[in-house]
Specification:
The complex is a heterodimer. Chain A is α+β, with helices and mostly antiparallel strands. By secondary structure, chain B is an alpha+beta fold. Chain B has two domains: 154 residues, Sandwich (Jelly Rolls); 82 residues, Arc Repressor Mutant, subunit A. In chain B, 38% of the residues lie in helices and 24% in strands. Chain B has eight helices and 13 strands. Chain B has a four-stranded antiparallel β-sheet. In chain B, strand 6 and strand 7 form a beta hairpin. The longest helix of chain B has 27 residues. Classes of the chains: A alpha+beta, B alpha+beta. Chains A and B meet through strand 5, helix 2, helix 4 and helix 5 of A and helix 2, helix 3 and helix 4 of B.
């Protein structure tokens, strides 16, 4: 059960598109934890056991590119991670790391998939989360086409230009 | 089926022979019947604008036949191609699902058939048919994977020859059948102009022209109109370091 309540039940991008009944049902399986800065919430190449919802704190999403990291985005509360891997079973390509102490809600993958099978209308909420991921990638792609990608990544990561 | 622009117009999704090979279209009979009733089929000539970057979402386009370029324009007015959409792709999906403006301008590169579904109908379609939601999730997952691949590719390719070699090798995955006389040669059809190739690789038309000229001089590539023949694939592969 959720021990650190969300500011609002619909405060994250997944719950915002679910009915109150489904939110309540999901809440029975969720667990909220506090994690220190530097924690890897999603690790590239490792299938996550759970969906991760950021309740508070800042995280960064990075993509490995020949032993360098490309910063995809910095995200705050309300973002959901691990959805692509949980839904498709494919290993994540990105790392999601806490930049500061964060509070996150975890929903076990098996439980989530079981609920999706029982309530296929949840696919709409899933599509919304996936759309957000894609928009983030598309925006970086646009920026990268306008200026070399290494400059794009160098500034936020503090790497030399 | 009716003919137009040398291809058959597929008006009935239930009779479409490509359906099961496409990520989105392989739906249940029930969903296909519904799709049939909410879609508007149109054939577009080359250069048609299906949607505009920044425009509020009106609906999605399922590209049935033909190809389209997805481009963006910088604040300085410079146009850049994000990628080329192939048959079977759903265009405008993120905008319609998330209710945000279209992320890119979509323009047909050749005569194309597309099925348009309005935003309201499409959102209802997802809610009413679980398999549609699943297909949408798969399509978004696939698109995201492609976008990550593009980002990596941009981050890794440093030189224009490398970028162009990568692009040509990518196109070579769909060669023209019976076009090349020698078995070791690969013929491809390139409908993009040099300006469009420059927009796709983030360089200038002059540079594209110079680099392609270099490939031809070295005997790696033969260009005859829209038919390009890769004569020395290994040489192009050697250019791609990553």
């Amino acid at each position: 059960m959720n021990t650190i309540p969300l500011k609002s039940e619909a405060a994250n991008e997944l719950y915002a598109s679910l009915s109150p009944e489904l939110r309540t049902e999901l809440a029975n399986h969720e667990r909220s934890v506090a994690v220190p800065a530097g924690t890897n919430l999603i690790k590239r190449g490792v299938l996550p056991d759970q969906l991760v919802i950021v309740n508070s704190g800042k995280v960064e999403i990075t993509l490995d590119c020949a032993h360098e990291s490309i910063l995809l985005d910095c995200a705050m509360e309300g973002r959901v991670f691990g959805m692509r891997a949980v839904v498709s079973g494919e290993l994540p390509e990105e790392d999601v790391t806490c930049q500061e102490n964060c509070s996150v809600t975890l929903i076990p993958r098996d439980m989530f998939l079981k609920m999706v099978r029982q309530h296929p209308e949840m696919y709409f909420a899933i599509a919304k989360v996936l759309s957000h991921d894609l928009v983030m990638a598309q925006r970086l792609l646009k920026t990268s086409l306008r200026r070399p990608i290494r400059k794009t990544i160098a500034k936020p990561l503090g790497l030399p230009n | 089926m009716t003919m137009a622009y040398n291809f058959q117009i597929i008006e009935d999704c239930l009779k479409c022979t490509f359906r099961e090979h496409r990520l989105f279209c392989d739906l249940s009979r029930e969903a296909l019947l519904r799709l049939q009733s909410i879609k508007a089929t149109s054939v577009y000539p080359k250069g048609s604008l299906l949607c505009l970057e920044g425009q509020p979402p009106r609906g999605i386009f399922v590209l049935c036949t033909g190809r389209a370029k997805l481009s963006t324009t910088s604040s300085e007015g410079k146009s850049m191609i994000l990628r080329i959409a192939e048959p079977g792709e759903v265009l405008g999906l993120t905008a319609v699902v998330s209710g945000t403006p279209y992320e890119a301008t979509v323009e047909t590169l050749e005569p194309s058939q597309a099925n348009f579904i309005s935003q309201a109908e499409f959102l209802r379609f997802i809610q009413e048919h679980p398999d549609v939601g699943l297909r949408v999730a798969r399509q978004l997952t696939h698109n995201c994977k492609c976008a990550y691949g593009e980002i990596r590719s941009l981050g890794l390719s440093n030189s224009v020859p490398e970028k162009l070699a990568k692009l040509i090798l990518q196109w070579a995955q769909h060669p023209l059948e019976f076009a090349s006389k020698k078995p070791q040669e690969t013929a491809i059809r390139v409908t993009l102009t040099q300006e469009e190739i420059a927009q796709l690789t983030g360089t200038s038309r002059e540079t594209v022209s110079r680099v392609l000229g270099g490939f031809r001089k070295k005997g790696w590539l033969r260009v005859k109109g829209a038919t390009w023949t890769i004569v020395n694939k290994q040489a192009l592969e050697n250019l791609v370091t990553t």
